[in-house]
Amino acid sequence: MGEEFKDIVLHQMRKDMMVKTFKTGQRFDGRKFDELRPLEIQKGNIHTAEASSLVKLGLTQVLVGIKFDVLTPFADRPDEGVIMSNAELSPVASPTFETGPPDENSIELARVVDRGIRSAECINLKSLFIEEGKVLAVFIDIYALNHAGNLVDAASIAAIAALTDAKMPKVENGKIVRGEFTGKLPLSSLPVAVTSIKCSDYWLVDPSLEEEYVKESKITIATTDKHVCAIQKGKGTMTRKELDNAIEIAFKRGDDIRNVLKH
């Protein structure tokens, strides 16, 4: 009971210190409330993958690899390819992560990234059809290298960056010819996620790890340049006005991210 009470007190002290800083109009790291951390995108980091990217969002780092394979299509979608996302959270990225099979955090991370891509329909799944009973599958493997807050947005950006680097594999006799390609993987849009959290009366975009510790509400909004394609609501409540503001900011910061992705 003593340790639990101590944790509660420390949590409240941390929150009070942050709110005091927020009242000055900025955050601990000097950012504005709606400002992203510095973003860096590198492509082609994994030579054994069909495509890859490394994203650095502040101190948060996420690596994504893309692989293609031939699979049997889903029975209800016989002429469509398949997208599968997987996330690995290892102790290398954070001491709070444990080795072993995927836990609920890694499953949720992969699901949020996958939902944004799938809902945006940025990949024409029919273009992955090979022949009856065979389609191409796109595997998106997400690896957290350093968790310094907001893994979701970093993973979302890394996944899209890797997809923009992907080439369509050559297929002969229903099999992939490794190392040979027919062109770039066509993407109709660039969906990216933007996460905001609420602490006291303040909404913060792209939260740091310290800010995540004191969050009261959380929402992740994935957008293309034209529409909202996915929303993931975390714990806590928000008003309609707060939701509208979060969507507006998600479009603005999403456009900033897309501009980086295009260069």
Number of domains: 1
Rg, nearest Å: 20 Å
* Tally of helical segments: 5
Provide the CATH superfamily.
GHMP Kinase, N-terminal domain
Q: Care to count the β-strands?
A: 12
CATH architecture: 2-Layer Sandwich
N-to-C SSE string, H for helix and E for strand: HEEEEHEEHEEEEHEEH
Structural class: alpha+beta
Strand content: 25-35%
For the biggest sheet, the summary is:
6 strands, mixed
Task: Walk me through this protein's architecture.
The chain is α+β, with helices and mostly antiparallel strands and 263 residues long. It has one domain: GHMP Kinase, N-terminal domain (Ribosomal Protein S5, domain 2). 30% of the residues lie in helices and 34% in strands. It has five helices and twelve strands. The strands form three sheets. Strands 1, 2, 3, 4, 5 and 6 form a six-stranded mixed β-sheet that branches. It has a four-stranded antiparallel β-sheet with strand order 10-9-11-12. Helix 2 crosses helix 3. The model has no long low-confidence stretch (mean pLDDT 93).
Give keywords.
5 helices, six-stranded mixed sheet, alpha+beta, 263 residues, four-stranded antiparallel sheet, Ribosomal Protein S5, domain 2
Write the layout of secondary structure elements.
Layout: H1 2-22, E1 39-43, E2 51-57, E3 60-71, E4 82-89, H2 104-120, E5 129-131, E6 134-146, H3 151-165, E7 167-172, E8 175-184, E9 192-199, E10 202-205, H4 209-213, E11 217-223, E12 228-233, H5 240-261
Parallel strand pairs: 4-6
Antiparallel strand pairs: 1-2, 2-3, 3-6, 5-6, 7-8, 9-10, 9-11, 11-12
